[in-house]
Amino acid sequence: MTGRPASPDDLTLTFENPRAERIKKVAQLAGRSARSRAGQFLVEGPQGVREAVACAPARVRDIYVTADALARHRDVVADALAAELWVHLATDAVVQAISSDAQGIVAVVQTSGDSLDDVLAQQPRLVAVLSNVRDPGNAGTVIRAADAAGAQAVILAGESVDITNPKVVRSTAGSLFHLPIVRAPLADAVAALHDAGITVLAADGSGDAELGGEGAADEDIAVPTAWVFGNEAWGLTADELALADLVVRIPIYGRAESLNLATAASVCLYASARAQRA
C-alpha cells in the first residue's frame, strides 16, 4: 500500500503471506523481549482496537483486519481511516499468524510514555496501586474495575505483570486506553502519593479498620485516596502494609474465607468513588 485509503471501501488486500518477514516481526510482539525492544505491543480484538483508535490514535502504528472483520466492525476501520491511521486488509491466515486471539482485527500500538510525575500532576483523587500482582487476567480486570470506578490512574509496583502482556491488554477490554498506567517501586510510589496529599490505604484482611465501618467510614475515604492491593496468593507483606496510612479490611458477612483480588479491588474502589461523590 502506497497511501492511506479514504474509506473502508477503498481497502484492497495488502498481506496474503503469513510467513512474510513483516508479519513474523509483528507476531513476535506476543513476547516480552520483542515488545521491550520495539516499544510496541499488540491490541487484539474489536473492542481493544476501537478504544485504541478512539482514545490513543497517535500511538496506533498499524491495524490488520480480515475481510470478515471489516464487514462486522466497519465503524472501527472507518474511524481509524478518518484518523489517518494505517489499516491493512489481510487474509485470515495472516491475522491468525499475528494472533490467535485477534477475532479478525489486531493493532500494533506504541507503549505509553506516562510517568508517575505525569499522573500526580493531574491531581488524581482515586488511584489503584497493584503490588506484585502477577496474574495477567487479574491485573487487567483490576484496571477495568479502576476505570469503571472513575479512578484517574493505576500504578504497578514490585514484580507486577507487564502491562503490555497480551492477556492483560485483552482483560482490560479497552480500559488500558482510558487512564494512565505507570510503573514505580512501591515505596517510591507511596512517598510521591503522600507528597501529593493523597491518603494511602492498604486493602488487607488483617486491617484494624473495616470498610464502611469504624475507622474507615465514608468520611475517611472521601478524601483523595490511593488503594494498595497485594499479590493474589499472599496479599501484602508486613513491610508493604507499614507504608500505608491505614490498613482496611472488607467485612465478610457470609462463610467465604475471603474475596479474590479483582472483587476486593472493585469493592474498595467503588466505596471511595461513592464517598467522594456523596
Supply the key terms.
278 residues, alpha/beta, 60s Ribosomal Protein L30, Chain: A, Alpha/beta knot, 2 domains, 5-stranded mixed sheet, 12 strands, elongated, Ribosomal_eL30-like_sf, MRM3-like_sub_bind, transferase
What does this structure look like?
The structure is a single chain. This protein is about 40% helix and about 20% strand. It has about 280 residues and is of the alpha/beta class. It folds into 2 domains: about 10-110, 2-Layer Sandwich (60s Ribosomal Protein L30, Chain: A), CATH 3.30.1330.30; about 115-275, Alpha/beta knot.
How would you summarize what this structure contains?
GO terms for molecular function: RNA binding; RNA methyltransferase activity. With 278 residues, this protein is an alpha/beta fold.
Order of helices and strands: EHHEHEHHEHEHEHEHEHEEHEHEH
Instruction: Give the overall silhouette.
Output: elongated
Kindly state the percentage of residues in helix: 25-40%
DSSP summary: helix tally: 13
Going by CATH, the homologous superfamily of the largest domain would be SPOUT methyltransferase, trefoil knot domain
End-to-end Cα distance = 54 Å
Largest sheet: 7 strands, parallel
- Radius of gyration of CA atoms, rounded to a whole number: 21 Å
Strand order of the largest sheet: 8-7-6-11-9-12-10
Stretches where pLDDT is under 50 for at least 5 consecutive residues are none
- DSSP summary, beta strand count: 12
Q: Would you tell me which CATH topology of the largest domain applies?
A: Alpha/beta knot
Please identify, by name, the CATH architecture of the largest domain: 3-Layer(aba) Sandwich
The tally of structural domains comes to: 2
Mean pLDDT over all positions: 95
By CATH reckoning, the class of the largest domain would read Alpha Beta
